[in-house]
Design a protein that fits this description.
It is globular and about 60 Å long. Strands 3-2-1-4-8 form a 5-stranded mixed sheet. It has a 5-stranded mixed sheet with strand order 11-10-9-12-13, sandwiched between helices. A 3-stranded antiparallel sheet has the order 5-7-6. It is built from 11 helices and 13 strands. The protein has a domain at 201-333: 2-Layer Sandwich (Nucleotidyltransferase, domain 5), CATH 3.30.420.40. Helix 9 (317-324) links the parallel strand 12 (304-308) and strand 13 (328-331). It is an alpha/beta fold.
Length: 370
């Protein structure tokens, strides 16, 4: 007979991993719960370019079986000791909408939301998996003075965040985790994981500026809730390819130049910085439009911009971003909520910038032990 008190005397294995399947690389972070705290055990990243005959840093479109193979290689290379995982789904492979509904009881809303969501989903509703969250109403702190007006007061609305993912996408990710021998209990859209690792209790709305290889994702978050998401179809690989074409060199050499020089403003590299600025100007122009549009619609200022993603690790990027945003700009710290070895502190400030999603996934997975 099994000892019924066994679980009280033997330590529980709380090791978990977050698996971020990006456009140009796969990132994995392993953490464990030790004395109630999340502790980093190991982490690693593998570029997908070489698996597709491309260079490091280039976006790929690998088949599910090849992605599974990359994950298994990374599990070995990073000395991962568990398969208990959460896995990300890219924002570009989902549809996120903020819709307004009448202020009805939650039970009635549950039946009405799928009907309303059909207006925003370009495929039959039975081909997608749908989820939604009711956004809590913000407390109205204004005084109610009796006024004389011919205008009717605005009718109250309930805001709902609706997320849909095509079933074929979910099936392909299920095949990936099965072939990689992962024990995955959830898939999560990358922006929710990034928010979990980067943001704490912010009093005012903030923007996350996540620059990857193929695109730059922009998220506006208020009270921990996504209020706006936007994808700019330019990323760090566009800078590499522009340098390659502008200087008539190979993408491999262009990538090295980008990584070594970045946007530091050195006088002897004006040509390179001019090429870099062409791509950055496009990205920051769109980011500025999203930020100002939100501020105008809701009459609220964005209090801070968090920079994250591998693309923002270029030298001088923070200074450039500060010159483009009229608000506080800081480098994100994906490992801020995880205890890490002291000797990794400085390394993670730069090399850890593209692990926000993987860390966020691992933190959610740890919650299963609560």
């Amino acid at each position: 007979m099994d000892n019924p008190f066994k679980k009280f005397f033997e330590p529980q294995d709380t090791n978990v991993i977050g698996v971020d399947i990006g456009a140009s690389a796969i990132k994995i972070v392993q953490v464990a719960k030790v004395k109630g705290k999340a502790v980093l055990k190991t982490y690693g990243s593998l570029a997908l370019g070489p698996y597709a005959g491309l260079t490091i840093g280039q976006a790929t479109n690998l088949t599910p079986d090849k992605i599974s193979g990359v994950i298994m290689d990374l599990l070995k290379e990073a000395n991962i000791t568990t398969r208990n995982s959460g896995v990300s789904i890219p924002l570009r492979q989902s549809l996120v909408s903020l819709i307004e509904m009448p202020p009805l009881p939650e039970k009635e809303l549950q039946s009405m939301i799928p009907i309303e969501a059909r207006k925003f989903i370009p495929v039959p509703i039975n081909e997608v998996t749908l989820d939604w969250w009711l956004i809590p109403k913000e407390e109205d702190k204004t005084f109610d003075f009796e006024t004389v007006s011919n205008q009717e007061p605005p009718k109250p609305k309930t805001e709902v965040l609706v997320v849909s993912i095509h079933n074929e996408i979910l099936n392909s990710y299920s095949a990936i985790v099965r072939d990689a021998n992962l024990h995955t209990t959830f898939f999560e859209i990358e922006m929710f994981a990034a928010i979990r690792s980067l943001i704490d209790r912010e009093l005012s709305p903030v923007m996350i500026f996540d620059m990857g290889a193929a695109s730059t994702k922009l998220y506006i978050v208020e009270r921990g809730i996504i209020r706006k998401s936007h994808i700019v179809n330019r990323g760090s690989q566009d800078i590499t390819l522009s340098i390659s074409q502008g200087l008539q060199i190979t993408p491999e050499k262009a990538e090295k130049i980008k990584r070594n020089l970045g946007n530091s403003g050195e006088a002897d590299a004006k040509t390179i910085y001019g090429i870099i600025d062409l791509t950055l100007d496009y990205i920051f122009s769109e980011a500025g439009t999203v930020l100002l549009g939100y501020q105008k619609r809701y009459s609220k200022s964005i209090g801070r911009v968090y920079l994250t993603g591998g693309g923002v690790a270029m030298k001088g990027f923070l200074e450039y971003a500060k010159s483009r945003f009229q608000t506080e700009v800081v480098m994100g710290d994906p490992f801020a909520k995880v205890e890490t070895p002291a000797f990794l502190g400085e390394i993670l400030k730069t090399s850890g910038l593209d692990f926000a999603v993987a860390v966020g996934l691992a933190l959610r997975k740890l919650q299963e032990f609560d």
